[in-house]
Amino acid sequence: MDAAAPLPQLAATLPAGSGWRQRRFSLRAIGLLGILALIALATLMVVSALLFRGAVQAQLQQLEDASARHGLLQQWRQEAQQRSDSDAATLQALDTELRDTAAERQRHLATTRHYIDGSTVTIASLAWLGITSMGSLALLFFSRLAGDIAAVRARAQDILMGDRGPGAPLSRHDELGELSQAVNDLAGALARHERDLAVERRHVMHQEKLATIGSMAAGVIREIGNPIAAIDGYARALLEARLASPGPPPVTGDEDVKPILRETARLIAITREISNLAAGPAAQWQLASVNQIVTHTLALLRYEPRLDGVTVTTTLDPQLPAAMAFADRLMQMLTNLVVNAADATAGLAPHTARIAISTRPDEGGILLVVDDNGCGMPPEVVVRAFEPLFTTKPAGRGTGLGLPLCRSVVQAHGGRISLALRPGGGTRVTVWLPLDGDEPVNCGNEFHAADPGHRR
Q: To 5 degrees, how large is the angle CA 193–CA 196–CA 199?
């Protein structure tokens, strides 16, 4: 993964918005609900005021009618008193009607006051209840909103400080909940990005180490090659001089020279082999022989201390077709698998450890199988075996990046890697590689969903 441009790759790893939990109410919807509640409260108060106004106007109209009738009766009584022909019964009837109209006026006046007092109390109560309720709800809402915003801010600061854990999601179903989920997803994407960078750093260090070893080996071979060639030349010249001498041959014959030639020939073969190892496999996308990669890897591991006392056997199909691949990456992958197998057999009795490597064609691809008779692994290790930075090895011996690198290399080639426990003990790792895969953009730099994998 290119560390210089991580943002597009990080954005690609974030889930789409539709993948988040279903939103119930957005903040905008909550705001609209609050506005609608205010409008409903104001409407209720206006309707109440209009209803009370109508009732008061009706009572006032009746009060006015009763007052007018009372005034008219008073006028009639005064006229009846002034007339000489008015009898006592007429005056008494007028007085009775005056008392009735006065009582009716008082009744309408009391009803009007009651309506006015009731409307005032009702409207005031509605206003107090609405303002208090909405104020309390607003206080609770904004208090929770402020607390959740503070939680998201604290989570972002934790991410800046290096925390890449999953984080506690907010129990919200609005934009703030989506923001919290996005921050947590960003932490996961950063964690994957950092693990990818760690694997790439390990690969770069491996490549630099091989280059350094190759450079040193080339220098050493050049320095010791000349003396070996000189010794071989002097020995051959001595043997030829003896054969050309007219005198009797020495008592020892050529037995004192032939060991020198034999040992110098062996030294020349060793230096040539080291020179071939120092050259390394091709680092280009091209046709590669998996059999040659196996042979080259085992030759490179010939002097690996962890393989001392381990019998390594190969069953390589001579008719195996070549495949498009990065040979150096496949060699690095196989090296990790063989070293893991050797670590798994470390507890066995001397000279009982076995590692078997085989190749064969299979369904448009190539099968590479690595078997060992080691200790195997418990189920909980199987679940986390390909998880980056997970290791069961002691501190200083394992980094937890070997098997994730193997998986990413195989998947970058369009292949598959799997494992199975052998019935007699040990583990079998099976790698399938396609014959004509497409050239990957980043070979082995991206982590994908981990299958149950091998031990570290």
A: 155
Residue ending a domain, among 111, 139, 163, is 163
CB 404 within 8 A of CB 195: yes
d(C-alpha 72, C-alpha 66), whole Å: 10
User: Higher model confidence: residue 283 or residue 100?
Assistant: 100
Going from the C-alpha of 68 to that of each of 62, 105, 113, 324, 348, the distances in angstroms are 10, 10, 20, 114, 123
CA atoms of 147 and 150, how far apart (whole Å): 5
Is position 203 within any domain?
Answer: no
Tokens 């076995």 belong to 354
List Cβ neighbours of 192 (8 Å cut-off, separation of 6 or more): 13, 447
Q: Which two tokens stand for residue 242?
A: 């003896």
pTM of the predicted protein model: 0.49
Structural domains of the chain, count: 2
Is 313 within the bounds of a domain?
A: yes
Q: Are 292 and 320 in contact (CB under 8 A)?
A: no
Helix (H) or strand (E) holding 216: helix 175-244
Residue 277 domain flag: no
Reference 335, options 366, 297, 305; nearest CA is 297
Domain that holds residue 68: 21-163
Alpha helices, DSSP H only, in 310-378?
A: 327-344
pLDDT, tens only, 319-332: 999 888 888 889 88
Average pLDDT estimate for 39-47: 83
- Tens digit of pLDDT for each residue in 149-166? 888 888 888 888 888 777
